[in-house]
Amino acid sequence: MSIHAASSKWIEGLAADQPVKAAAHRVLELRLHAVWERLPAAATEASEDPEHVHQLRVSSRRAHAALRLFKACLPRRKAKRIERLLRRLRQAAGEARDYDVQHARLATLESDAGIATKSVIQMIDRRRAEAQAPIVDVYEKLQYKGFPDLIEALLSRLDEQNDEGSTQSFGEYAAERVRRAAKRFFDAEAHGKDAYSTLHAFRIRAKELRYTLEIVAPVWDDTVRREIYPIVEDLQERLGEIVDSHVAMDLYKQWNRKAHCDGSRCALRSLIAHQRTQLAEQRAAFDSHWTQERSAMLRAQLDALVGA
User: Fold this and answer.
1) Among 162, 170, 232, 272, which is most exposed with the fewest C-beta within 10 angstroms?
2) pLDDT tens over the chain, length 308 residues
3) Single pTM value for the model
């Protein structure tokens, strides 16, 4: 299995009329192996290219989404064991990725906005180096536990299971899951003036809907890929920018309180002021984009898709 095939957002070989367990086998095989294939480079080559950690984080999120999507037909104990390992991996990769994002943001600010960020970048780089160790630790643990063997054990047990949902088609199952994800998405809907916690919760639901659509897209024609998915993807990315700005703001404030030299303190205060302005602009842009009309249009598209 090539890393490209395993890591692709879209999954080939699925059809609406196939049994849901056959679809689950195909999806989980690809999503879980994608994590394993991305992990070595993220553990050993991250200093050469931060994209390795980014792709590992994305792969682990997609794998977690697949486990949740097919939870009803999975062997509980084996699924939970893999889910716990993925959670540890996401946490390790998440911290490292946050520092990589902040490094890139500061490098851009120094060149575009003329803010002196060298001392802050040095602080970030020190912490980023420390954040690599947990990724290596998880990699070694998964090697020791034989993660590929755990994947095969899960898939084998899935194939052997006899349950009430074994005759349900993937198309029927997919429609139910999209309907649930869409309800959670619209129940959590937020706007630019809302509290950060509300916007963050909305982003999580947008991400859940996005990853669900990636898996179930083959059930329908190109409607999902061309019309619905781009709307959800764009929305999540806009919310992600706001979340990244909040993370940066909190980080700079925390470091400013602990700064021991005037140079670092001055740079951090400049960054805080710049980030505050940027965050206000991002929130305003989000409000201009995510209107009631756009929200209603997406709701209507999803309702038409699943026959709600």
Assistant:
1) 162
2) 555 455 589 999 999 999 999 999 999 999 999 999 999 999 999 999 999 999 999 999 999 999 999 998 899 999 999 999 999 999 999 999 999 998 888 888 765 555 667 778 888 899 999 999 999 999 999 999 999 999 999 999 987 766 545 578 999 999 999 999 999 999 999 988 888 899 999 999 999 999 999 999 999 988 899 999 999 999 999 999 999 899 888 888 888 887 666 667 777 888 888 889 999 999 999 999 999 999 999 999 999 999 86
3) 0.90
Q: How many domains does the chain have?
A: 2
Mapping DSSP onto H, E and C, the string for 160-225 reads HCCCHHHHCEHHHHHHHHHHHHHHHHHHCCCCCCCCHHHHHHHHHHHHHHHHHHHHHHHHCCCHHH
**65 in Cβ contact with 30 (< 8 Å):** no
In the listed set 110, 142, 172, which residue is the last one of a domain according to the structure? 172
**Token reading at 188:** 């959590």
Alpha-carbon distance values, 1 to 5, 7, 42, 44, 55 (Å)? 7, 10, 19, 22, 17
Q: Which residues pair with residue 19 across a beta bridge?
A: 169
* Cα 174 from Cα 170, distance rounded (Å): 6
Does 117 fall in a domain?
yes
Residue range of the domain that includes 211: 190-308
